[in-house]
């Protein structure tokens, strides 16, 4: 971390002086909570990527439409792989919640659907890909808590249905589905209005994550990237931290307090 100390302290000063700072988080923030990433190379010291053991095609919108019963069976198996041991927010989630609570973070954009930012106490969260903590009725649009619905699925109700008779779907963006306009609009507005844009734990290759730092930079924001590996934005970022988010973000929060 030593090489990053000067970068962290300079970034902390900018965030401290910023009118609005926005953070964007990706899978790298959830991996330290034991949640495997979807893609990437199998690693020795972490969980294997999800798509090593599950087929993305099983979670496509077409599959949900054609075979909702099979979709939900596979969905429970996927959930077991991802959250099997029970997952808790880690130091990175907590540091971001602390930054918001102290007025240093305006909006938190996330690609993650695990709900851990909310669990850590972050309020101003825009979930770009939805959240697996909720279900939505495919017919009437009613939403509800996912936990009880998953229990019904385990008890044999496949697919689970709404009072209106429509099929319930996890409230996440499936392959083949567009991003929710409202979330994307909020994310773009936040990126356009911020002075500092901090991308954490994302390779910034998948849209819309690939697009938002661009929107922020074009509007004159300072661009900061914190990721273990280089990203598509590392070259042009004003601050490029090659660090574990669970170390860098608490250090950033501490520097802002100091
Ligand atoms: Zn309904």
From TrEMBL:
One Pfam family it belongs to: SIR2
Binding site for Zn(2+): 137, 140, 162, 164
Molecular function terms, GO-annotated: histone deacetylase activity, NAD-dependent; metal ion binding; NAD+ binding
Protein name in the entry: Sir2-type histone deacetylase
Organism in which the protein naturally occurs: Halosimplex carlsbadense 2-9-1
Keywords: Metal-binding, NAD, Transferase, Zinc
Region ranges (Disordered): 33-62
Domain Deacetylase sirtuin-type: 1-258
Keyword Protein biosynthesis: no
Alphabetized InterPro entries for the sequence: DHS-like_NAD/FAD-binding_dom, NAD-dep_sirtuin_deacylases, Sirtuin, Sirtuin_cat_small_dom_sf, Ssirtuin_cat_dom
Active site as annotated: 129 (proton acceptor)
SUPFAM superfamilies assigned to the protein according to its UniProt record, in alphabetical order: DHS-like NAD/FAD-binding domain
């Amino acid at each position: 971390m030593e090489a990053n100390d000067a970068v962290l302290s300079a970034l902390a000063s900018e965030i401290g002086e910023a009118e609005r700072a926005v953070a964007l988080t990706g899978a790298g923030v959830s991996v330290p909570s034991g949640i495997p990433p979807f893609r990437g190379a199998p690693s020795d010291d972490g969980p294997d990527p999800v798509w090593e053991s599950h087929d993305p095609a099983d979670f496509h919108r077409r599959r949900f439409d054609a075979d909702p019963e099979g979709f939900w069976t596979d969905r429970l198996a996927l959930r077991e792989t991802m959250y099997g041991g029970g997952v808790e927010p880690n130091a990175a989630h907590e540091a971001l919640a602390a930054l918001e609570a102290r007025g240093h973070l305006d909006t938190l954009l996330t690609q993650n659907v695990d709900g851990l930012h909310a669990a850590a106490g972050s309020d101003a969260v825009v979930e770009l890909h939805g959240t697996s903590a909720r279900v939505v009725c495919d017919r009437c649009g009613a939403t509800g808590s996912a936990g009880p619905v998953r229990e019904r699925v385990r008890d044999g109700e496949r697919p689970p249905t709404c009072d209106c008779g429509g099929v319930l779907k996890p409230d996440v963006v499936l392959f083949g589905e567009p991003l929710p306009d409202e979330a994307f609009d909020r994310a773009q507005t936040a990126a356009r209005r911020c002075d500092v844009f901090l991308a954490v734990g994302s390779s910034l290759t998948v849209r819309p994550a690939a697009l938002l730092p661009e929107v922020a930079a074009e509007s004159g924001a300072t661009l900061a990237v914190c990721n273990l590996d280089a990203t598509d934005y590392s070259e042009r970022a004003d601050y490029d931290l090659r660090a574990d988010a669970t170390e860098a973000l608490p250090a950033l929060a501490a520097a802002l307090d100091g």
